[in-house]
Amino acid sequence: MKALATLIVALLASVPQALAAQDSAPAWNGFAATFFITFAATVFIFQLFPGAALFIGLIKGLFGTHAKREPAAKSRRARIG
Questions:
Q1: Cα–Cα distance for residue pair 71/9, rounded to 1 Å
Q2: DSSP 6
Q3: What pLDDT is recorded for position 14?
Q4: Do 59 and 51 touch, CB atoms closer than 8 A?
Q5: Chain mean position to CA 40
Q6: 3 state SS of 64
Q7: Is this prediction's pTM over 0.85?
Q8: How far apart are CA 11 and CA 4, in angstroms?
Q9: pLDDT per residue over 35-52, tens digit each?
Q10: CB within 8 A of 73, min separation 6: which ones?
């Protein structure tokens, strides 16, 4: 049990040192990561336009004015004669 407590204390003591370490190199992800992020943003933007058009059509359909329609004929004979 004492060994486990010593191990936990040793691990906890080393955590601040690991978090304080800094890399002097700039954090540039490279061409592949930049390309992927750009591609994902482009797909998102181009999916936004049809989605917005669909949403606007939905809102117009729900709250727009509708012309009154005449009720359909009850039977086929009523339309013919």
A1: 82
A2: H
A3: 67
A4: no
A5: 11
A6: coil
A7: no
A8: 11
A9: 999 999 999 999 999 999
A10: 79
Map residue 24 onto helix, strand or coil. coil
Q: Which amino acid is at 17?
A: Q
How far is it, in rounded angstroms, from Cα 77 to Cα 4? Answer: 93
**Which amino acid type is present at position 29?**
N
Tokens at 51, concatenated: 């989605």
Q: Locate 81 and state its tokens.
A: 């004669």
3-state helix, strand, coil in the chain (%, to 5): 70, 0, 30
Tokens representing 30? 């490279």
Vertex 58 angle, CA 53 and 59, to 5° = 100
Tell me how far apart the alpha carbons of residues 65 and 53 are, in angstroms, rounded to a whole number: 19
Question: For 30, which DSSP code?
Answer: -
**Does 57 score more than 80 pLDDT?**
yes
Q: Are 73 and 79 in contact (CB under 8 A)?
A: yes
